[in-house]
Amino acid sequence: MRSTILAARGLVAAAVVTIVGAGPAVLGAASAQAQSTQAQSAQAHTERGIVLECTGEAGGLAAYVNLYENDVFTNYVQVVLDDSPKLAASREPKNIWSDGVVRSSVTIKGKRATIVGTASKTGRRTHVHEEIEDAGNHVVSDGWHRRLENDLVLSYAGKTVELTCAPAFFYKLEVTKTPIV
Predict the structure, then answer these.
(1) pTM for the complete prediction?
(2) Quick one: 91 and 2 in the same domain?
(3) Residues in CB range of 2: below 8 A, 6 or more apart
(4) Considering 61, 70, 81, 101, which has the largest number of Cβ atoms within 10 A of its Cβ?
(5) Tens digits of per-residue pLDDT, 146-178?
């Protein structure tokens, strides 16, 4: 009986050693498979566009203007006057910047707020690398920004406001989104 118990313990010990010994290999294979699946589901694309975030004040009118153009996703224009939510509007126009010319508008309280002017790339490219977690994805952006020299004005209700924009840049980024497993 004692020899049967010892033999059974030996079999159990051998089974535990086999399982534990195989554990890292099994886990390694599972991890490699998960990484392979993750790599296969990673999506990469190139994005180009502009960012102009501007402010100005003239004739008793304060203005905040956000112009964002992205050739892959939606363009966006936002105007806020006198820091008031009641004097604010946004929209998603087809184009904002073309051949160095900026032109866009929104309607606020039945009146058109128009942004016009020029913006041109200047200076050296600045390398950009960013990693963030967004909506269940690990997002890596690699590429460059280049400063936009600009001369923009906002017109609204007979008033014209010269805008100062910072940040103001053109960007080109390779963006890779990988689902977080």
Answers:
(1) 0.76
(2) no
(3) none
(4) 81
(5) 999 999 999 999 999 999 999 999 999 999 999
